[in-house]
Amino acid sequence: MGELTVTRDPEELGFDADRLRRIDSHFARYVDDGRLPGWLALVSRRGEIAHLATYGARDVASGAPVESDTLFRIYSMSKPVTSVAAMLLYEEGELELTDPVSRFIPAFADMRVYQNGMAANPITRPATEPIRIWHLLTHTSGLTYGFHRVHVVDQIYRRAGFDRGLPPDLDLAEAADRFADLPLLFEPGSQWNYSVATDVLGRVVEAVSGQPLERFLAERIFDPLRMTDTGFHIEAHQGDRMASLYNADANGRAAAVDTGGSAFRPPKAPSGGGGLISSASDYHRFTQMLLRGGELDGVRILSPRTLGYMTRNHLPGGADMQEFGRPVYSEVPQHGVGFGLGFAVLQDAARHRVIGSEGEFSWGGAASTVFWVDPVEELTVIFLTQLIPSSTHPIRTRLRQLVYQALVG
């Protein structure tokens, strides 16, 4: 665990310190009125931390505060990590983006696409296009999530035991094979839909590398970057740092659902799409590697060309997620935001109606966490809390407004 602290005077990095403190006063209200249990905010520029703030409790019942070393479930902020893992294998020539997934997971050889009918007896047809690695990385595979609750195929996933997370009785190979048995929402490559694709990608990493996903991530990403707090479960000595998880009740107030006990159990199927636990210090190191073109402290994870390729919009014809996608499980419409290989990519800030720099890339997690990397401003931002769902309050848009209004130089 690296020490986390402000490393440079904000003014030297082009920030107005008083304006940065607007982040703290704004989100303090979310805790004071019960909307969030507690939070951590980190703003960094040119590799130096300009602002670090915590507020509220990591566990409301005990009053234990959020601290700089608190551990959080980062849910879908796991996806960029797993995407980087897949691209490590790409750089070694072990796979191509055009490879059918069935090359590595044979159960995906004969996929079928939903046409109509009820969840108990759907009518399907053979897919004309195989799911490829590129489809998994871009969420254009036709896979889905049970928790979307907007389509019959989502219901089929829930009936098969896939609602939120992977069933505890399956290993990752078994879970991937089960996904292959379910109908696709659409023909691969024809639309964008947020899905279990990155969990399947995690299984591809296992199949290609011959290692369990957790070991591959540790040996190839976490250990080299000194991300000592990141993994799919926590050890006993870390337990008192774990934040409790909260659901939003009918009034948008935080109600505890998991005080952290489940985090001690290594999952049978590590979810590359949503299973990681991490700290602000660790994820900051990951974002710095991304900002620096794949290298940090003399350790190179990816080449700058590979990372640049991952963080451009890959949706056909330059489309954004709003026009190319199914209804998005998101706080805000995604006008002007495309998708790369594991990251959302801002194409047009004016269309997005939220301040930012074209070319910034980002993603968030189900418990209202978020990060982004802005190469134009050499800026990285991380916000960690533990409230499900992330669409409960307008955290991510407000955070962007508050960060960029403080950037004056």
From TrEMBL:
UniProt domain Beta-lactamase-related: residue ranges: 23-402
Q: Which InterPro entries match?
A: Beta-lactam-related, Beta-lactam/transpept-like, Diverse_Enzym_Activities
From what superkingdom does this record's organism come? Bacteria
Pfam families given in the database record = Beta-lactamase
| Signal sequence region | none
Q: What is this protein called in UniProt? A: CubicO group peptidase (Beta-lactamase class C family)
Q: Which organism is it from?
A: Lipingzhangella halophila
Its lineage opens with: Bacteria, Bacillati, Actinomycetota, Actinomycetes, Streptosporangiales
